[in-house]
């Protein structure tokens, strides 16, 4: 566990020294949502109906931007080979990498979302649902994305392949999360959608690190 904690600290320190790695997805998220009203009808009633979907699509695409580099540097400098040689669990490494990615990507997106909700005329009743859906849904995006990043870690310019692999798995998260925000804006119950997201998060925490570890072993054995 000490090696896992050291890896988390190192990755967070590197993210602090290279703010562009986590600021670029954040600015992309801001620009997508901010420009959307300019491209369609700026009527507040119309924007209120689609606000949850727009915010979630922006968050999903912004998350994809930062996934390509998740393991690439560790593959290139031999860190992953050293980790495997040390006998430490690749499961814990994959879980730690997903945690760092969420802290640098998903958490900032969640904190910025209320400001973008104001820009999109999001109904007052929908803010809690939006924050809950992002708080539960963005870790799922990071965990699923870590699997794709592990599969494409040894591939040059694997960003497009990564997107093709991961986007289909992101669709259920997008559907349930956007539905929760939409129903909350109408004054309807959204506990079911949040519950489904919670179940998906529990499954992702249990299963995706195993898939990521297997993909990393496959890349290292080439």
TrEMBL record:
Domain of life of the organism encoding this protein: Bacteria
Listed transmembrane segments: 21-40, 46-70, 90-115, 127-153, 160-182, 194-216
Pfam families the UniProt entry points to: CcmB (PF03379)
Main location: membrane
Database matches in InterPro entries: Cyt_c_biogenesis_CcmB, Cyt_c_CcmB_bac
Topology versus the membrane: Multi-pass membrane protein
Keyword list, A-Z: Cell inner membrane, Cell membrane, Cytochrome c-type biogenesis, Membrane, Transmembrane, Transmembrane helix, Transport
Localization, UniProt: Cell inner membrane
Key word Iron-sulfur present: no
Keyword presence, Cytoplasm: no
Stated family: Belongs to the CcmB/CycW/HelB family.
Function: Required for the export of heme to the periplasm for the biogenesis of c-type cytochromes.
Protein's UniProt name: Heme exporter protein B
Gene: ccmB
């Amino acid at each position: 566990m000490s090696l896992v904690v050291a890896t988390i600290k190192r990755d967070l320190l590197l993210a602090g020294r290279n703010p562009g790695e986590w600021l670029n997805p954040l600015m992309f998220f801001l620009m997508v949502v901010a420009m959307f009203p300019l491209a369609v009808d700026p009527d507040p009633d119309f924007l209120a109906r689609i606000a949850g979907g727009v915010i979630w699509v922006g968050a999903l695409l912004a998350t994809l931007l930062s996934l390509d580099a998740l393991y690439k540097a560790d593959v290139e400098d031999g860190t992953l080979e050293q980790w495997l040689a040390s006998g430490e669990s690749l499961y814990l490494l994959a879980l730690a990498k997903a945690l760092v990615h969420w802290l640098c990507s998903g958490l900032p997106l969640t904190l910025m979302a209320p400001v973008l909700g104001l820009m999109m005329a999001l109904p007052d009743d929908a803010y809690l649902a939006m924050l809950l859906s992002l708080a539960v849904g963005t870790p799922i995006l990071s965990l699923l994305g870590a699997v794709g990043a592990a599969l494409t870690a040894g591939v040059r310019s694997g960003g497009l392949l990564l997107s093709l692999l991961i986007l289909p798995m992101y669709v259920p998260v997008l559907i349930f999360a956007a539905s929760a925000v939409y129903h909350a804006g109408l004054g309807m119950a959204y506990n079911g959608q949040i519950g489904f997201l919670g179940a998906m998060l529990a499954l992702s925490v249990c299963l995706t690190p195993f898939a990521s570890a297997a993909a990393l072993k496959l890349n290292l054995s080439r």
